[in-house]
Amino acid sequence: xxxxxxxxxxxxxxxxxxxxxxxxxxxxxxxxxxxxxxxxxxxxxxxxxxxxxxxxxxxxxxxxxxxxxxxxxxxxxxxxxxxxxxxxxxxxxxxxxxxxxxxxxxxxxxxxxxxxxxxxxxxxxxxxxxxxxxxxxxxxxxxxxxxxxxxxxxxxxxxxxxxxxxxxxxxxxxxxxxxxxxxxxxxxxxxxxxxxxxxxxxxxxxxxxxxxxxxxxxxxxxxxxxxxxxxxxxxxxxxxxxxxxxxxxxxxxxxxxxxxxxxxxxxxxxxxxxxxxxxxxxxxxxx
Length: 287
Known about the structure:
Arc Repressor Mutant, subunit A, Rossmann fold, alpha/beta
């Protein structure tokens, strides 16, 4: 298949690497058309192009940009896809440190339903509910079992195609229902980035509630409270990025391995994030 990927961040670049390795024709684009884009294309054997042309003749188009950038995509760029092509939405809504508040989503519209409205084309939600490092061969080779990955959408044939891509990426696909139920795999849900097998993924999806948690909302009772929440989340991610860089440089770790180790420390809950960051900043290691 010919796959066009819009966005070459952690998710988009790793999906490009995976699908090119599986023999698909892969075309990649990002908003900057930077040297990094061309370097990635050369590395994996993909074709670099512009966002305007990335969907031309594609059987699959994967949208992997920040959510706030969706309305800025060129009008009509999906008009060039092949008949019956599938559009996959991998995006997530992060209102505090990146996207800003989007009113329809805050009022309960599923994130991918909003994306569908902006693109004016049906989408299948997939590849959003796993950490990027699980898309690397390095991490997957060490897993004790295959992880499950939820998929939501309204077209059963399109979901079947995406399910095959999920399998090729090293996961077991789990049908999470229609796009109107895609809130079950949004940030803050039990299914989001929790490394579950198929049985436990079904349980997590069933346990989800369509109630946006405070940490996933860009709405606060006052501007002062919102400003503080933004500052705190931005500071957290700055510390997180700094910690990853320190571990990579000090231990000759890859970004995927370093990120997984830090996240694992968070999940254990034995120390607060501040304590974990403090250890890394002072000693350049993890216990």
